[in-house]
Amino acid sequence: MLNRVRSAVAHLVSSGGAPPPRPKSPDLPNATSAPPAAAPEAPRSPPARAGSGSGAPAKAVEARASFSRPTFLQLSPGGLRRADDHAGRAVQSPPDTGRRLPWSTGYAEVINAGKSRHNEDQACCEVVYVEGRRSVMGVPRDPSRGQGLCFYYWGLFDGHAGGGAAEMASRLLHRHIREQLKDLVEILQDPSPPPLCLPSTPGTPGSSDPSHLVGPQSCWSTQKEVTHESLVVGAIENAFQLMDEQMARERRGHQVEGGCCALVVVYLLGKVYVANAGDSRAIIVRNGEIIPMSREFTPETERQRLQLLGFLKPELLGGEFTHLEFPRRVQPKELGQRMLWGPFPWQRNQSFTSWARLGVGGMAYKKIELEDLRFPLVCGEGKKARVMATIGVTRGLGDHNLKVCSSNLPIKPFLSCFPEVRVYDLTQYEHCPDDVLVLGTDGLWDVTSDCEVAATVDRVLSAYEPNDPSRYTALAQALVLGARGTPRDRGWRLPNNKLGSGDDISVFVIPLGGPGSYS
Amino acid sequence: MLNRVRSAVAHLVSSGGAPPPRPKSPDLPNATSAPPAAAPEAPRSPPARAGSGSGAPAKAVEARASFSRPTFLQLSPGGLRRADDHAGRAVQSPPDTGRRLPWSTGYAEVINAGKSRHNEDQACCEVVYVEGRRSVMGVPRDPSRGQGLCFYYWGLFDGHAGGGAAEMASRLLHRHIREQLKDLVEILQDPSPPPLCLPSTPGTPGSSDPSHLVGPQSCWSTQKEVTHESLVVGAIENAFQLMDEQMARERRGHQVEGGCCALVVVYLLGKVYVANAGDSRAIIVRNGEIIPMSREFTPETERQRLQLLGFLKPELLGGEFTHLEFPRRVQPKELGQRMLWGPFPWQRNQSFTSWARLGVGGMAYKKIELEDLRFPLVCGEGKKARVMATIGVTRGLGDHNLKVCSSNLPIKPFLSCFPEVRVYDLTQYEHCPDDVLVLGTDGLWDVTSDCEVAATVDRVLSAYEPNDPSRYTALAQALVLGARGTPRDRGWRLPNNKLGSGDDISVFVIPLGGPGSYS
């Protein structure tokens, strides 16, 4: 064990100046190059009603052989080959001649420089119609409220250890969201606060008795109000969980390889919901100002959650890892000496002080014992940080088969499928055509700061007429190109001669005050 | 089970406008009125060397029969009786004629209005000398560094379910802190960064080899620096844990009743460390400005930690409680209906979004099943909030015998003995004699806001000469009197006719720029 994990660390530490990849197929057990399956039909997820570029027919999927790109790219067989070419790394966008994405959304992507066989990012952009369940509230439907709701949906999925999870999520996650929203169609269209209790099912005793619709006013005085917004947040969170559970169920039958980060935007009834699970990032650039709409979930940012879990459930560490933190790896020759152990001050943050004091103890000198030689649960820093010496991202979908290298210890218990959801009220501000929401996988953000993105937004959009719908695609392309760089000196280099991103790069640019049609 | 906890809730909800007490002796099983033991001598905690009013001799403790007050009050038998009189509620302070507390600290206390037989608050104020362990760093001691360190120490302990834990903590916690600091005496006096590794013990192989003193410079480049300050924070945190463990060991032999909140101040080498575990509070009033130096740990502020623990370790809930949150208590007649369940938006805060998404799920409508009728792990609001329908404070010392009412389910796993430690650098600001650190048990803060305390600081101190050392005792007395009120209309009332605090009230006023002697 010690030698194995030590060499794993050596591998992590010895990588050069380029941003090291998150573990991908070559590093992981169980990673196969088997072709991803056609989009599995979720029993609970019938197909979306309306959609621009919704699921391709099964035959088309088969024709693509071992990989696929987003349907809205409308790639020909030749285009698909170019999109899969690591040497050329051609930037892909929807054709200017085709049907535009909703809201004139801009999109661009580029494949990695060779770190994995195919582009493991996936993307989805849909308009989804949600039909309400019949008589959810147990009373006859009010015809004036219409029949259902539409939401706009954008998703970026950054796969690792194979492309299967990202592809499955890109085809199905919005359907899970739709399923979760079905219960809420009537409630969200009713301006009064959501009821706390619904009758069991229409037609059962009590369903016609309006006293069962217990509203806030009839409950305890201590009761607080639930907002429509928080119901939508809950629906999105639960959809992520159901998507993850579906991957667990179907992983064998459909060869759901690896896992993926998921960054999703839902626009519904005037509000933009940004849900992030992983290390992709979303920012709004509004009048030159940067508004962060997500944060990354990595072994470093989630160190306390991971260590607390390891402390409370030591069986998950399998006797191979320790949740204790030493300032560096303990050497066998140091047995019997006393070393400082954490929590260290640089690991403290606000959530730490409120949480991990659960029983982890304060920093002190500790006599080194045999079990302290175990590998740390969280090791490395920055992009090199890993959970159990294996994975560099701590939230996302899939990874049900992920094991510690050369071991049978599952890592999934330490990963969370739940996103953090941030809400932006589009009606609270008069947006101009230059105000955009930018979504990018870590391939963009590894080499591009928020400020550099804002500068590119300004530079590119000012070169186009405000009503030119192609400006957002041009911006997405400029962002991808700026992160990829150009081939020079045996590598992809940025104008400042630093290394460009060798990762898959995918970018959505969503105009907030542009020529889009807001329903 | 249901009836029992339901009546417990009825009790909680039916209490009147006065701030309801935290559960004290009458509410709790295992609470006895046996006399507290004399301060047990901790095997790891030999007596403090220097101290103003350090531990009274055992005979004096016996003479006090069934209760005690802080030694520094120098109470005569008659004074002790007056201090124990619920009817008169006379304010107690150290005699003006006696030896002053260090730094001319002001202190005042008053007994409760009858909620428990004796005053269950305790206090301690000491100057503690820490002798370093011989040759901790494995090299001959540098004689120029002196022999040891002194720290100033103040502690407030708010007991519940008996006075034993508070009394034990007031006698021993500073000794645990001293023990923890012994290893650090040499290190804290050395201006260079603390070593990360110490030799095992003096005289063992390797101890004379300075290469074992691995400093930051010789370690991995990723290594960060440990500060002296963080070592002291760790020492205080670990002292709390050791104090709690000692209570667990000795609870039978010495009848350590109940538990206590602990609010502790350590002044060492220019810095003030404020450690809080419970619902006492410390604020600095500096030039009229309020600087919070602690926050309260209650079922409400720690809801997420508690629910996560209940989720990860459901066996701790004993089949009697649920970690799920409904907007109100579920009724048996609602079985089969669908009710919203949490996490609710009003429970979300920053630490929540980073933590509890571990798998608790998003808000949604859920079909009510039998197990949803279980009592919520956290119930009630504000001062009425309770863990497992029993206790209203979630951090502190003791409570090892605390069980759910009429049940054998232990509550201790949900309580944490770890304090949050905040540091204030006394050298970073030129303090005037009116700048003070105010410590108070919840008896003060239940009826007094931070701003009202700051106003009283200004009013009382301005009535005294800046160099009059009695002004801080006068201020402490004014704060206690202001929270107690005067007997009127069958109760203790404040000038605005609201109810005064019926709780024990204890206050320290520590001058930060007064006539105190800073070592």
TrEMBL record, chains A, B:
Residues 33-58 have a biased composition (Low complexity). It comes from the Eukaryota. Residues 1-103 are annotated as: Disordered. Signal peptide: none annotated. Residues 104-512 form the PPM-type phosphatase domain. GO terms for molecular function: [pyruvate dehydrogenase (acetyl-transferring)]-phosphatase activity. CDD domains: PP2Cc (cd00143). This is Protein phosphatase, Mg2+/Mn2+ dependent 1J. It comes from Propithecus coquereli (Coquerel's sifaka). The gene is PPM1J.
